[in-house]
Batch of 4 targets.
Target 1
Amino acid sequence: MTKNPVETIEVELGIFIRRFIAATTNKKVGNLDRAAYLLLHQISTHGSAGVKALAEEFQLDMSTISRQTAALEQKGYLYRIPDPQDGRAYSMQLTDTGTAELALNKQARLEYLTKHLQDWTEEDQQRFGELLNKFNCTF
């Protein structure tokens, strides 16, 4: 019996996510958990950002992002930039330590993925990346 393609995608995404999170959570790939890595990556790629903008980007509530950024600030990975128009508001920016930690984790993740994609052609890797990007842009 042939499965519906959406069922196949649903199961395969679940397996992929579980395996990748397990690898990163168990410190096999870097020291940052998924949330920390994605927050640091977002700020590194798009520049300093406030809690509201980050919450919107990740489709999370502001209290969750506030807790996550506070933990990263406490570790010395982020610092606050006060908003000159609103004394209560601020943006988060990476510290040199945060930039270095992100780079180390990114390198470890790339090595992990490279190992698991080593038998794929460059064309297959390119297409897989394009399809993942297309899928992620639907949210």
Target 2
Amino acid sequence: MPPPAASARAAAPWVTGDVWVDELASPAAPSRLRVDSVHFAPGARTAWHRHPLGQLLHVTAGTGRVQCAGGPVRTIRAGDTVRIGAGEWHWHGAGPDTAMTHLAVQEVAEDGTAAELGEPVDDATYATYATYAMHAAFAAEPSCP
């Protein structure tokens, strides 16, 4: 999958695989809102991470996966929105055979912290999605458990 025009490659160790980021909004202070369009090649994913004030993901294309600590790996598709709570450890990325693009919306903390990096997501964790494909309850209330 070629990178979209004007995209920046996401930096290791934040991701596994090919991931590109387009910054859509990063307004000047006093605003702390940040919006990125993130493009994942098949099999690509973030490392475990958390945002001090939470994050909203809205899938705009493709099929992917998301998991919050202690919860199952879930399938997400174009049109799905996932709300991740403040300080919630999580990861997200594309499916094994499909690319995925999502909007990532978060507020940066007063001290400038946008996210805290955790461990990479291992292949075994990434592969567990088939057991926990999206179901009606998740679609109705698509927040991390």
Target 3
Amino acid sequence: MDYLTRVRNLRNDSGYSQEYVGNVLHVSQRTYADYELGKIKFPLDAMIRLAKLYDVDMNYICGLTEVRCEYPCDNPCQVSKK
């Protein structure tokens, strides 16, 4: 799964709007939508804020692992259901 799909799925699973997440990242809803569409690359600080918002590991957001938990993980066997 690519990171754009993962970010969109995390937002949808959390019930957040693009406007809400944009506010968390200090950008407009339009800019956030462009991030999700891949028109603009997510800045590193935005990815860090997303990891904190969703309480997941950066590697999970980037699609490098299926382990959702934040590093260091208290439960290394906690694997995403998706």
Target 4
Amino acid sequence: MDRLLDERLETFEKTGQVAPEICRFVRTELDALDAAGGEVTEESAGTLTSHLLLALQRARDGEALTGFEADDAVRAELAGHPDALERAAALAERARSVLGVGLPGQEVRFLALHLALLGQREARR
């Protein structure tokens, strides 16, 4: 993980936007992506990081997004990236296990889009 992405995580935690345990969980997930060969930087994973942090905090606060107008378009895009959807579902299950926070399907699919993009970047390297 590069310095800028690390600073993003610190900012979310220090400003109180996200609970410390959520930041720790997301940092662990990013470290695992990095260790698996993903290029986890501010440029490649900044939006994934912010989305995951905020999605988990919203879900913990009982404010999870349940309506997403573009969900059909997201589903169609993910049809070509089943591995990303599996990875996102596994991530959501780890969040449930570690944090006791469940993410609705719309959030999982949106995270899958981020993971698909990260995978495409890795494939181009």
